[in-house]
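Open question from group meeting: does this chain pack into something compact, or does most of it stay loose? Before anyone orders reagents, we agreed to write out a predicted structure and look at it together. Recording both the input and the output here so the notebook holds the full record.
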Amino acid sequence: MKTEQSNAELAMTKNIVEMAFDFTAMVRVFSKDSKEKIKSKLEEQFTCLAKVNTREDYEAFHRTFCEWFIPEIRTAEKKLKNGKVLKSEAASYGHAAKVLDIAIKVYVYYCAQPNAEVAERLVPFLHGAVDTALMKHLKSACTAIKDINEKAYRDLQSLVRTESERCKVRPVQYDDIMWRQLNQKDNPRTE
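Structure tokens returned:
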């Protein structure tokens, strides 16, 4: 029975990681061979979450993923409307952080994994996912995910924390609220 339970838990983790990665809408940004590598690394990282007990542990966990991501993952070559081609290049810290921040939000905050107790402990540590609309809203010096290095990411997270505290929510909740507002999900069009 233990094997069946382990298989069920592994299958659930794989399914959540797959949904979470697809939810990031970043699959198209990366080269074709990247999707499976990223999902596999997320699954591996998520097995370590029960050992994360402090904010410092979480920051180390986050940094480990981002530092793995940058040399391992490349952007997809992109053909522009004017006919020019943007060559494939190494992913940025911003790319890595956005993928992890959204995937872990789905896994921990939405799905209460790896279990409810661990998820409750981790939610206060989770970062707010940053996209172009949020950077513009926060009046960030960065205007594109590809331009975000580790320092710029830390600066953005500081802005997110300040705004989330002002709104009396966690950064991961602020991210949800702002994503809906900035993408006009909660503002019906008037025509």
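Observations to bring back to the group:
The first strand starts at residue 78 and ends at 79.
Residues 2-182 form one domain.
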